[in-house]
Amino acid sequence: MSRAAEQLFLSQPSISLQIQALERELETVLFERRGPTIHLTSQGAALLEIASPLLEGVDHLSEAFAARLGELNTGEINIAAGESTLLYLLPEYVKKFATTYPKVRIKLHNVTGRAGLAMLRADEADFAVGSMIEVPNDISYLPIHEFETVLIAPKGHPLAKKSAKNLTLADISPYSLILPPRQLYTWRMVEMVFNQHKLPYNVTLEAGGWEVIKKYVELGLGISVVTDICLTGRENIVRISLPAYFPTRSYGIVMRQKTYLSAPAQTFIDMVASGFSTTKNA
Q: 213 and 156 in one domain?
C-alpha cells in the first residue's frame, strides 16, 4: 500500500478510500489482510487480469496513436525465437521493419521454446516466434506458415537416388542419423515415428543448430531429418520429402493470453502475418 501511495504521490489513507470505493462499486472484496501485509483476493486477482492490459494500453496511448498514423518514432520490440527462426524465417521481416521504422529498437533473443515461454510469462518478451506442438492454457498460438519434414543426405549416399514415393523408414533405419539434442522436438518426433513402426534407429552424432547438422551431412557423417525451413537450396546435399511418415510443422506467433501488445510489436506481427499470407496465396 505504501509503495502504491509513493508511486501515485498520494497518501495511504487516500489509496485505501479509493480501494473501498471500488469495492463498493463492484460489490466485492479485492484485498484481504494477513498479519501486517495485504493480499489480493481471488476477485482482486481476476480484476487485475482484466485491468492490466487496459492500463498498459493507456500507458502506450501516444505510441498506438502514432502507429495508427503510420508514424512509429519510438519504442522497442523484444522477440524470443530459436536459432532456425532467427536465421531463416525472420530476417526479411526484421530488415523491412527496421527500414520502415528506423527509430524503433528491435531486440532478438535466441532462446529455446521453453525459455521463450518463460520470457513471455515474465514480461521479458513481447511475443515469441516458433513452432508449437502443445499450447499451454495461458498461451495463444497463431500459425503463420507450414514447412515440410524432410530427409537430407550427402550426394552419392545410397538413399540419394530414392524418391519420396519409394523411400521407406526401413530404408532409413540402418544408416547413421545426425539429430539435434534429445530434449528438442525433432529427436522426439523421430523417436516416436520409428517406435510406431517398430523399427530401430541409430543416432551417431548429436549437434545443436541446423547449420551444424547440414555441414556434417555434407561431409558424409550421416543423414538427418530436418524441417525444410532451414534449407536454402545452396546446400550440397539431397533433400527427400517424407510426407508418409512425418507431418508438416507450423511456425507462428506465440503470446500470452490477454496480453497487451505495444504498437511496434503489433505492427511487426501484422507485417509478418501479411507477408506469409501473400506468399501462400501467390
A: yes
Do both 187 and 242 map to the same domain? yes
- At which residue does the C-alpha cell 521504422 appear? 101
Q: Quick check: 120 pLDDT over 90?
A: yes
3-state helix/strand/coil string of 13-68 = HHHHHHHHHHHHHHCCCCEEEECCEEEECHHHHHHHHHHHHHHHHHHCHHHHHHHH
Among 201, 166, 164, smallest CA distance to 182 is for 201
Instruction: Say whether 182 sits in a helix, a strand or coil.
Output: coil
Say if residues 117 and 109 touch (Cβ distance below 8 Å).
no
Half-sphere exposure of 222 (CA within 13 A, CB side): 21
Among 25, 44, 59, the domain boundary falls at: 59
- Grid cell in block for residue 29: 472484496
Residue where the block lists cell 496465396:
281
Number of domains in the chain: 3
Q: Same domain, yes or no, for 262 and 142?
A: yes
- Do 54 and 194 lie in one domain? The reply is no
Domain boundary among 35, 59, 83: 59
| pLDDT surpassing 90 at residue 27 | no
CATH number for the domain harbouring residue 47: 1.10.10.10
- Domain range enclosing 163: 149-247
What digits encode the pLDDT tens for the residues 166-219?
A: 999 999 999 999 999 888 888 989 999 999 999 999 999 999 889 999 999 999
List, in order, residues 6 or more apart from 84 with CB less than 8 Å away: 210, 227, 229, 230
Give the three cell numbers for residue 274: 501479411
Residue pLDDT, tens place only, 129-158: 998 888 999 999 999 989 999 999 999 999
How many Cα neighbours within 13 Å face the side chain of 116? 29
**Is 109 found in the same domain as 90?**
yes
